Amino acid sequence: MGERDPHAFDPAPADMPGGEGEGTGPGAPDAGERPPRRRRRWLRWGFTAFAALLVALVLWLVVTAPLGRSLEPLEEPAILFVSAEGEAIARRGAIKDEPVDVTRLPAHVTNAFIAIEDRRFYAHWGVDPRGIGRALIANAQAGGVRQGGSTITQQLAKTAFLDGERTLTRKAREAVIAFWLEGWLTKDEILSRYLSSIYFGDGVYGLRAAARHYFDRAPEKLTLAESAMLAGMVKAPSRLAPTRDLAGAQERSRLVLQAMAEMGSLAPAEASATPPARLRGQRARLPTGTYFADWVTPRARAAIRPGYGITRVPTTLDADLQRLAVRATINANLGDRQVGLVAMRPTGEVVALIGGRSYKKSPFNRATQARRQPGSAFKLPVYLAALRAGWRPDDLIDDAPITVDGWSPQNADGRYRGAITLREAFARSSNAATVRLAQEVGREAVVRAARDLGITAEIPAGPSYALGTGGVPLIEMTAAYAAIASGQAPVRVTGLAAEAGSRAARPLAPQREWVPMLELLYAAANEGTGRRAALRVPTFGKTGTSQDNRDAIFIGFAGNLVVGVWVGHDDDRSLGNVSGGTLPAAIFKDFMRGALRVDGTQGPRLPARFGPRRGLPARERDGGGERGDNRELLRLITREIEDFFERL
Predict the structure, then answer these.
(1) What is the mean pLDDT of the chain?
(2) Alpha-carbon distance 508 to 378, whole Å?
(3) Is 145:159 a contact under the CB 8 Å cutoff?
């Protein structure tokens, strides 16, 4: 063939795709080089994805595992409640004290934890394959989980950054965080954070708090035996806490000493000769749950910021009065009945509180949480509304059968006395007269009086509301009586010393509302249904018994104390023949007899020339309506009361 014309048309040049000479022309890559180019492309993509994943992982760790988290104080630090006299009464919440620095601790302290928890701590990088293998073999031989393969770094990762779920995903996150911690912290820093944050039982976190809690000393002063006991608790802190099982904690500490000897940080002879530690801390024996502490904790917690150690919170509780309240309820013939008692100052500071017969058996607080029918104790706002409307204690009201909206209330004794004074109607707790009075005054006026007295509970719509058929907490009902005792309404109830004396209340007009109401309460507590509660000082109060005797209440005041007592069953069973004027009145009197002797601030008392006399003339007890010399007696009592509260 002749030589090819360079200008001739070639339908498939060598440099065009599809031509026969593709990839074979001058400068074209060799056919064997195409796979490496693709490999390089995949490597670039893989490296980019890995870098992005690494950046995401670092960002995730920065957010979820900040290096300083284990050193932070608890969000809800422990609170130590103290009585008005400064006596410790209860502790609520967990304790975490300031961090420890392992470089300042004795060698036997750190060695005890390393020997029993992670002997290769200074040799691994957060995860110890050798330790995991040893644990798997030991568990297989034992036929169950006997050892764990987690390192101290992993335990720090778990306690500081993760929850307690037992899943492979959580273990994977734990390992990643452990590597992260090892990469950014020294071994001593990791160990310091670990010892500063692990749980030691009894609501105690961190070595410093544990050393003070159990042994009443700083961690820098721990003995070998004490260090071994604390290190041994880490495996099962709740079960091995020495306050719970001292013998078990001591036995575990011997294993720690043996492990230290095997590790070479302790001579075998010293390990054998070291006697087990014993408790020295006083906090370990402090009660951690009472009705009063449960009640005041939410308000105290709201005023406290996160911090180390225990926050001391003064309360209004009077330790002596609280003991008298406990004694009064124990001495009462309660049978299988439950009881609630609250004692407060007329200004609302709670000085004693009983929420039930046994906190251990039932922490439900019947004085603050239960909404039970107050019965006739609710007649207080009914008669206060009547006094506001211009009625007077000597005015007459018809004690006769009445029907309202198809409902006919009955008097407890089944008797109707015709026209009687408001004083007698209140003292005898006449249901018919009270419902008739509520109809005369109007529901709106009664509800307004209840709200002014501080009663916030829902009031039923039917006419039976006047007889206390709506549920009201005992403490709220007692505060309403405190408003009458103080002449200020409403009373702000508190158990915290910091809140004592802070109230925004208006004075009750003495001539129109306050003094007449005191007169009615005096009659009820001395000559009426509450006469079993009467003391040798002026006593004011009212009984309450709900339908079918399901609830029995007495609320009254004398001296500088206002006290409410409830007796009933949690399942709403009938109390039989128990009423507000029997068992609750007796508990009130038993408590007040001792309380008035020990209470430093006394309220108004009868003038000296009247001596121990109490009550109304005999003709008044018979319902004749004559007052005789009793008017003078009430005027003197009222003058004493007014003088007392002016001094306040």
Answers:
(1) 83
(2) 18
(3) no
